Write a sequence for this structure.
């Protein structure tokens, strides 16, 4: 051996079998599709013909002036904001409640996670029934409680439907963030709790000035996950409303699906797909920049 | 044993005993309220499944069924339920075996070996976490057709494995970095090759992390909808979530049958939850916390 021997340096064959399969699969199913989407966005193609007609940036130009696309972007961000405003405070409150309850609330801890267990499709089908205007559980309960004035066409009202969807998303995902926060709370050393109790901190003060600052990292994680997740919603909306009524609940992913597999405008759908990627990518960079301080602390 | 215990506590006098605070009435009210929100839809779903087809119109939705009739459940069980269950199990198990094999070896390389581009390739892999499945949908659909695997379970394995790789490598690499380097060095000094160190030392030591990633990925794949929706079409190739989706058309006029189908589809995950509760929750959380 002429060169300095480095025991950490693998030979090529070892490296190839260890890394190769993962990299090949990632290139085939993640990286190549992203590039191919961008390429297809430059073509006018229905997905069936042999020939793809090059159309330059015509699709992109159309996208920028497509009010339906911007509506779907707006709806994605409505979902995002409602999710942040409800899931974080609610998840945090429930986590603190479960934490204070300790073993007394073991049953609650188990059952609170139930909404997170069902598949999104099943949740959508179930709540379609619950939100039904005439026969749905929600309106019938309101009626029997003489609260008729609260009865709504939850999924049929153009203005309301997107918020109904957003609330359902919160029902499904809050348990995850609750458990995330609970895990973080349990990670706080009991010495801290004892010390603050000796110093005379009340429950509320302890939560406000000790617990919440100490689990900032978990809150940042939750914000990141909610943000990225919200931009990618599809299953729930597709099954619950299919983007309707009158596109009022259309989101980027459902619009993309409509274009590709219902309208056979594959070139244009690829443009939406590329735009979706860019929006998610830029949002991720923005979040990681904005939260850098907290994460490094 | 008991003697030992009593002696050890006797040595440390307890000056101050800390007690969890008393729960206010408000806490109990909030706790019960959310319990209601979380559970009522499930009671409704199960009860509805036992109702007769016309009961929907004749009695309020919140009333329990007049007669607990399992006929809807039997109807669903006679359909494609078991086929779908089997399909889901096959797809999840095959995907998980492949993911564990290829991602754990890659994680070992990222965590312990020195080669050019290690850090850059690792960050590129982790960046895969944010790629939306929808962006890749059309090219993957085209690719699936070209490979002549459209409408088969095999069509799902590729995307399922690929999209599970970034989170799996991320969690496993972090875990393997925490395994003391001494193990690695000792094995190398004894003349073991890198492959041997991976199989004989690191893979067994990473057991707990492997359990976590398998649980996390399995739950996600078990409920996966998009790829299964686009890459399969015939009823005997559908996974469980898709079968539930198809029931909507099949039993369009029979809502109680749809509710029975939903209940039956939820059974496997709830069973898993009751058996492995802590592990399942930790697995799902690990995926969230680490990313």
């Amino acid at each position: 051996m002429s060169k300095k021997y480095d025991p950490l340096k693998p030979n090529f064959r070892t490296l190839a079998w260890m890394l190769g399969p993962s990299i090949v699969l990632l290139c085939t199913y993640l990286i190549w599709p992203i590039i191919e989407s961008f390429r297809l966005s430059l073509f006018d193609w229905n997905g069936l013909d042999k020939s793809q007609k090059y159309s330059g940036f015509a699709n992109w130009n159309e996208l920028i002036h497509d009010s339906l696309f911007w509506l779907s972007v707006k709806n994605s961000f409505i979902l995002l904001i409602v999710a942040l405003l409800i899931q974080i405070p609610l998840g945090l409150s429930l986590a603190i409640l479960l934490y204070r309850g300790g073993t007394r609330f073991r049953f609650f801890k188990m059952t609170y996670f139930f909404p997170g267990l069902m598949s999104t499709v099943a949740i959508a089908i179930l709540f379609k029934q619950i939100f039904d205007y005439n026969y749905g559980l929600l309106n019938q309960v309101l009626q029997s409680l003489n609260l008729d004035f609260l009865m709504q066409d939850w999924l049929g009202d153009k203005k309301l439907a997107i918020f109904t969807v957003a609330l359902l998303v919160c029902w499904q995902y809050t348990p995850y963030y609750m458990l995330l926060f609970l895990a973080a709370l349990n990670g706080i050393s009991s010495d801290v709790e004892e010390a603050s109790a000796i110093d005379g901190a009340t429950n509320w003060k302890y939560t406000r000035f000790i617990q919440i600052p100490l689990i900032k990292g978990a809150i940042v994680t939750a914000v990141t996950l909610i943000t990225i997740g919200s931009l990618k919603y599809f299953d729930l909306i597709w099954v619950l409303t299919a983007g309707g009524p009158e596109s009022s609940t259309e989101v980027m992913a459902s619009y993309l699906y409509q274009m590709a597999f219902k309208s056979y405008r594959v070139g244009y759908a690829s443009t939406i797909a590329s735009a979706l990627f860019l929006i998610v990518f830029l949002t991720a960079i923005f979040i990681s920049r904005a939260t850098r301080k907290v994460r490094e602390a | 044993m008991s003697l030992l215990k009593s002696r050890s506590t006797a040595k440390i006098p307890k000056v101050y005993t800390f007690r969890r605070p008393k729960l206010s009435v408000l806490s109990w009210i909030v706790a019960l309220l959310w319990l209601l929100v979380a559970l009522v839809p499930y009671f409704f779903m199960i009860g509805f499944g036992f109702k007769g087809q016309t009961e929907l119109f004749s009695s309020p939705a919140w009333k329990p069924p007049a007669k607990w009739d399992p006929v809807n459940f039997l109807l669903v069980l006679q359909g494609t339920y078991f086929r779908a269950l089997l399909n889901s199990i096959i797809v999840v198990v095959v995907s998980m075996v492949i993911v564990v094999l290829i991602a754990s070896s890659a994680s070992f390389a990222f965590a312990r070996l020195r080669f050019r581009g290690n850090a850059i390739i690792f960050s590129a892999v982790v960046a895969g976490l944010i790629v939306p499945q929808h962006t890749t949908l059309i090219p993957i659909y085209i690719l699936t057709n070209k490979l002549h695997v459209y409408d088969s379970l095999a069509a799902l394995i590729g995307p399922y494995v690929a999209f599970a790789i970034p989170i799996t490598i991320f969690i496993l690499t972090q875990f393997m970095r925490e395994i003391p380097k001494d193990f690695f060095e000792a094995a190398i000094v004894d003349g073991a090759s890198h492959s041997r160190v991976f199989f004989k030392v690191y893979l067994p030591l990473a057991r707990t992390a492997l359990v976590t990633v398998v649980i996390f990925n399995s739950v996600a794949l078990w409920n996966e909808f998009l790829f299964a929706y686009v890459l399969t079409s015939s009823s005997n190739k559908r996974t469980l979530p898709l079968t539930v989706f198809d029931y909507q058309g099949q039993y369009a006029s029979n809502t109680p049958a749809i509710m029975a189908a939903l209940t039956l589809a939820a059974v496997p995950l709830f069973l898993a939850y009751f058996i492995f509760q802590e592990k399942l929750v930790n697995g799902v959380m690990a995926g969230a916390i680490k990313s």
About this structure: Residues 1-10 of chain B have pLDDT under 50 and may be disordered. Chain B has two domains: 20-69, 80-290. Residues 41 and 47 of chain B are 10 Å apart (CA to CA). Chain B touches chain A through 92 residues (CB under 8 Å).
